Amino acid sequence: MAREVTQEQFADGTTIDGDRIDRAMQETVDRFNRVRRGDLQNRFFPQTYVVRWMPRINGSTGTNFPFMAAENPDLATGADTPERTENELRVKGFRAPGIEVLDGTGSNHWISSTPLAFPKPVILDDISFMLTVDHNSLGSRVFTNGFTYGATPPDGYVTADGSEDFSLVVSVDNPFYPEDQRLAAKVFAYHGVSLLRETYWVEDPGTPPSSDTSLSWPGGTVEGVYFRAKDLAIPIPAGARVRVHMVVPEYATASDSDWGAGTANDPTTMQMYDLNWVTLEEVC
Amino acid sequence: MAKVTRRRLSRGNKLEVSATNTEGHVFPELEDMADEFNAARIATPQMEAPNGVFHVFLNLPCIDADYMVPSTAAAKQTEDANYGIPFALFPLREDFSLTTDDDGQVSLDLDESVPTPVLESVSFGFDTRSEPAAVAGRYYGQSIGTIGSDMGTLDYDRTDAYGIRLSIVGRRPWYFASTDVDFKDSQDAMRPTVEVWSTEITPEAYASYGLRINPALFKDINIAMDPGLSYCFIIRAPELLDPTNDLNMALLNVTIDMRFSMEMDVASADQSSAQNRPTRFTESAPTVTITAPQPGTDIEADGVDGIQTGLDNIDDVFVSKLRGGIGRLGEGRLDSVLADYGGYEVIAIPLFNNRLQGGVTGAEMAAEPYSGAATDPIYDRGRVTLAYPFVLHRAILGWNWQRWLDTGVAATSIPGPNFTVDVDVSIGAGLRSDSGIVYDQVATHQMVDPLTTGTWDTRLIDRIAIRHSGSPLRTATANWDLELHELRIVGTTVAGVSFQDQGERVYMGQTWTPLGARENIGTAAAPYTPGAPNCAGAEQFIEATVKIRETPTGPAATEVVSGYGGHWVYLIGRKYLMR
């Protein structure tokens, strides 16, 4: 029984006239000649977003950019004290065991925040990050994070436990109070997960296997953290201002974890960063 | 044409049917519809929403106050304060055709069948730590060249640094320019010739409590782009640099998201030609049957030749939704009726985009990762998770010579004859496995000696000059800042699909066991021998790698090895409706 393209129904033994048949055919042809987007079983195109960089050599003179400290106002030398601080913390909802934000103990978080706005609704479908270091067999490694706690781990952990201190947060600004990050909607959060559960491999494959690339990588076989969350189906409304935050820890002492501490052993330079996310967007 | 037409039937007219589908009422239309379904010919002219969407997303970790060369208050108000990112939206292979006129002038043949990208919106944002303040750059409180200690901190009174002009400019590529008519090697011939879109953001957008315009969204732009032009996104933020008080600010995590719409197209050539494609593609069309009554028989509602039965059979297709596209794991659709389900796609991978000084000179080669001396090569590598099937049609390198204001060792020239750049794009498998990573190379290019024609520009598409002066390039009359080069896709040469010789397009995407068998993929160099792919249908990521070196001497300290903000690899191809 046809119900989708026309409401007209015909059956043997009932009356009929040309107008009804004509209406049924007009509706059917109209629908066929102008297929609605909702008629398509698959009507979304994916889109890949790429954020990545290779930091400076650990310990070299330079910056942590684009990472900046988590708390505000953090004034520049000589800058006037502001009327007020709008967001004492830049990002809502991140944590690393053993690091208390805003307590002035020397530990901290570093945040890289990527903002973008969507004019039409999209679906956040997939997000992945790679924290890549050099293979541990290399004699002179540049990127060295082992993603474990050190000799003085936070309470509740022992040395060599996988560190649970990296956060990835996707937030959407509140439409009525867009600048108050306390009111932002956290639509995706990755934190409190042992990074050793997310490694590229568990059994070391050793030296690079056969490769069909013209350029061999001086860092050897890839090592580090690879995390991917897929089939997320997180709706992002039209006009939304989305911020994708990567949060790395900085402990008070370098012995706390493999992330290191201080400018000479800077946590933001312990690995390379590859951050991707995929949205689905409807045909238009 | 997939649309159908029909004869009107109104009360008082004689209802006619025909089993031959040439005249009559009702059944010819139903048979036409069934034929279109059965042949999978539902196309964009009959769709309410015929366009796919793609974005060109560009992320720059940092644009500091030293990104430009002019250092005086007056000079930095000129176009020398431009920062540019080149990109292109060249047609996919089916739509790429070159013509040569009687004068030998080559041009891109863009007829009405070539889909046109339409710029719908631009999102521009950066990180101000969620405060109505400006972020201090490396040189805050110091003259340029002396790194201070305030980087990343805030100055609430310096939001005037964020007076920013944005524009998208375009030009006919150097590849098409005529030596005689266009003076193609002159600097003027390398300048953008059209401004597609521009705007100016005033500092007030970043200065107020409660509501700031960051990220800024410019929508409903609706400007058609010319797929035959090369483009450049220009950022001009001269007030980052404060030559008077040295309150030098920075733009961090700059994100540019250009959203385009473009008509969907037929993807069948990808499924029949692409290297590395699944050997078994399970797409099939439905069987919709319409049976018209024979002449002389009663016209009925029910029964196999009834009007209601015919309508029901068409309705069933709509009830179960019109199918088409390719699933996440490369599965074709059973009962697929769509002809047009391919969409244009650009994946932009930045390389050397966050260096100590913004760019790299010969003086800084030794401070780069994996390098201990200026004579050592430097590397960068970016990875992209392959979350859905993608067919690579062309790979473009956006090379960057843009200088910056480095008062330590100013970069004033480009390296010499031994300067070599290798770019490689591969697909890889083996993440979260214990067997290691395997790769298949999909595109490659080597450029040697920027000063010599025929070694550096073998696959050159365009040279773009976005600044008036200050280019490190070669002569007083030909200074450009940006270049577009085409990478060579692996495999046996296919004629007429791109600017230079190219291998066949390359499918990439994860799959599952029943579709794991793949067609061969060729090598990068002659004889381009095809062989079974190393990834064996399990590719998980794309990897772009660049290696720069000048051996045996190394570049001079004053030579630009990598321009400010680095380079871009654009993977242009086709994606598919998937959900």
Describe what this molecule looks like in 3D.
The complex is a heterodimer of chains A (284) and B (579). Chain A has one helix at 18-33, and strands spanning 44-53, 68-69, 108-117, 122-133, 167-172, 185-190, 223-236, 241-250, 272-282. Chain A is mainly beta and 284 residues long. Chain A is elongated and about 90 Å long. Chain A has one domain (43-75, 85-204, 217-282). Chain B has one domain (51-266, 341-576). Chain B has 3 helices and 27 strands. Chain B has helices at residues 27-38, 268-273, 307-319; strands at 51-63, 82-88, 98-100, 106-108, 118-125, 134-136, 154-155, 164-171, 194-201, 216-218, 223-224, 230-236, 249-263, 265-266, 340-351, 360-361, 378-385, 390-400, 419-429, 438-448, 460-464, 482-486, 488-489, 506-508, 541-550, 560-562, 567-576. In chain B, strands 1, 5, 6, 7, 10, 11 and 13 form a 7-stranded antiparallel beta sheet that branches. In chain B, strands 14, 15, 18, 21, 22, 24 and 27 form a 7-stranded antiparallel beta sheet that branches. Chain B starts with 26 loop residues before the first helix and ends with a strand. The mean pLDDT of chain B is 91.
